Structure formats: C-alpha cells, structure tokens
Amino acid sequence: MIKIISLVGARPQFVKMATINRQLEDYKNIKHVIVHTGQHYDNKMSAVFFNEMQIPEPAYNLDINNLSHGSMTGRMIEKIEKVLLSEKPSVLILYGDTNSTLAGSLAAKKLHIDIAHVEAGLRSFNMDMPEEINRIITDRISDFLYCPSKSAYDNLIIEGFDNFPCKKIISGDVMYDAAIFYSKLSNKKADVSKVVNQKEEFILCTIHREENIDIPQKLTSLIEAINEISKEKRVILPLHPRSFKMISKLNLKIKAVVTPPLSYFTMIELLKRCSLVMTDSGGLQKEAYFFNKHCITLREETEWTELVDLNVNMLVGSDKNRILETYYNVLKKNKFSSKKIYGDGNAAKLICDHLISNLI
Ligand code: UD1
C-alpha cells in the first residue's frame, strides 16, 4: 500500500486536489490522505468546494488561519510535521503557491519525505508577491515537478533545474481538467438566477491580491474603475473576505453588484455566460480562457504569460485610466484566439501515472 498525502488550505487548491483525488480513486493499493491547513475556513471559502466536488472530508484540519505570514507558516510547519511523522507517507502532494504550500514543502523536506509540486515552474518575477516566494522555494526543494505549460517548464530549465536531482514533466493544467469535468455538472447544480438573470450581459470581476487590497491608493483606483464601468454594464463582484474588510475600512462605495464569495460551480456558470472577466486572481485568468472569454488582469505581471502572448489577456495593473482604456479596447475585439496550451484535460492522469510509477 502506497500512502500519498495531499496538503491543501486555500480555495483554488481544493479544485486542483479534487482532480487528483478523483484520479487516485482509480488505482489499487493507494491510500490518499487529505490534510487541510485551515487557511481558508469560512463555509463559503472551503466546505462548499468539498461538497460540490464530492471531495472526502479531510482526515486532518489543522485550523490555522487569520495570522501574519510568519506566524501562519510557522504554526503550519509545526502541525504538518506531526501529521507527517505519524502518517509516514511516501510522498506529499502540494498545489500552487500559498502559505500552506510553502509550509508543507519545508516540513516534508526536512523529514526526507518526497514532495510532488502540482503547478510547478510558474513565475511572475515579482519578488514582492508572497506567492512568488512560496513557489520558488517549493519548486527548488521538490522531487517531482508537474508543469502546467511549456513556459512553466522552460522557467525551470532557465533556472538550472536540469542539474538538480528532481523529475519534471509538462503535465498540462489540472484546472483545465476540472473545468471540463465539473462544467458538465455545474449547469445542473448551480443556480445563478439570484446573481444574474438569463439574458443580462455582465462582467465577472474579482479582486483579492494582497498587493492590490492592502494598498489603499491601489484599492481605491480599482474600485473607481469598476464603478465607472458599472455605469455602462453590470459588473458582478464576488468579494473575498480580505477585500470586503479593506473596502469597509476605507468606506469605499461600490456600484457593482457585490456578492459573498461564490462556489466553484456558480463561478463556472458565470464564466460561461459573462462577456468579459476582470481579475487579479491567477486561477480565474485561465478559467476565462477555458471558457473563451477575454480577461483584463488587474496586475502588472502574470505567471500565465502564454495568455498575454495570445492576446486574450491584457495586463493593466490597478491604474484607473489604464483599466478604462483597455476596457474600451477589449469591447472592440471580436476574435478570440484559442490553442491547446494547458494539455488535453488529462493532466491529473499524467501526474498520477508518473508519480506512482516512480514510487513502486
Ligand atoms: C491566499 C493565497 C493566494 C491565493 C488565495 C486564493 C497565500 C500567501 N495567498 O490568499 O495565493 O490566490 O489564497 O483565495 O497563501 N479570510 C477569511 N475567511 C476565509 C479565508 C480568509 O475571512 O475563509 C481572511 C483572512 O482572515 C485574512 C484574509 O482573508 O484576513 C486573507 O486570507 P489569506 O488566507 O491570508 O490569503 P488570501 O488572500 O486568501
């Protein structure tokens, strides 16, 4: 029996892990143990994802949240180490770039437990982002690196990973797997009528990045741009708790349709129907692409550079005038370029086959 632990803590990681979990159920003699750090803990940020995608209850919930980066990461390392010592897995699977990912990588590596990193090789080249630090360190100490795209793989080559004792492949993107699989279920299970009516045109917008939300001038400029656009078209703005707290603190008035955080299935249905996406999220940029929607990215850089090259993703940062100018330009676009850059929707299978063949 091979024991594999998946460590998750934040919203997008539940989606990525769901694809791996489904895949692992097909193998004999594999025990998959799910550990939740508790980084995202609200029902709307966590439980709803497990319910919709029918992910089994985590075997452990470490209940670590609402702390500074250092305290959060430190406490996670301590508790993850205890779990790893008692479970003794063959490998720890980590997803993406959150503080939970970083804590898992440090805890496992020091115990000489192999690490598999799903979503390896991504780089924004902005070292002020906590996510960039988390992914660089995790990649460097991982034993198995699963790159969602060729450009992610190329980043590892440029950084000299050919000289390190690790195995790396271009697996494709598990979020593409998830979008294909769950979009067949979401139309039956998600009711978006409370958010939008059938015929209405709308823009789907999210903001939550620390570098946008925690700087009042940037957040104010973003909200002003969103308000301006809302005069012309309905903007649906599901608000992350971090954003909600800061907007309330600064007493900013919003003209968009504000909703609480929405479930994955609801987001898929909104992605299918929206006319445009505006976001600072990493995952949503790609999901816009999966559903053939242009994306205005409210950041100065992106890890998903191939989308910018395809001219379907426009990087605009947080400056109000730049956002508005790009918005009016995007309205004139009618062509959407699509290429198979994130695999064939079988990334989870490629990852699990590769990983398990290396463990037996
Ligand atoms: C984290 C990840 C980011 C990822 C994002 C997905 C890091 C450094 N960042 O950012 O890479 O894109 O998740 O959403 O790990 N909060 C709640 N309820 C919750 C969860 C969070 O109120 O269920 C609050 C926290 O108390 C905190 C704020 O939201 O005040 C930020 O949460 P945190 O988990 O630190 O980072 P995210 O912004 O979610």
Give a short overview.
By secondary structure, this protein is α/β, with parallel strands linked by helices.
What does this structure look like?
This protein is α/β, with parallel strands linked by helices and 360 residues long. Helix content is 47%, strand content 16%. It contains 15 helices and 13 strands. The chain has helices at residues 11-24, 43-52, 69-87, 99-110, 130-141, 150-158, 174-189, 210-213, 216-230, 241-249, 264-273, 282-290, 305-309, 320-332, 347-359; strands at 2-8, 30-36, 60-61, 91-95, 114-118, 144-147, 167-170, 202-206, 234-238, 257-259, 276-279, 295-297, 313-315. A seven-stranded parallel sheet has the order 3-2-1-4-5-6-7, sandwiched between helices. It has a six-stranded parallel sheet with strand order 10-9-8-11-12-13, with helices on both faces. Helix 1 packs parallel to helix 2 (43-52), helix 1 (11-24) crosses helix 7 (174-189) and helix 7 (174-189) packs across helix 11 (264-273). The longest helix is centred in the N-terminal third of the chain and has 19 residues, at 69-87. The model has no long low-confidence stretch (mean pLDDT 96). The protein binds uridine-diphosphate-N-acetylglucosamine.
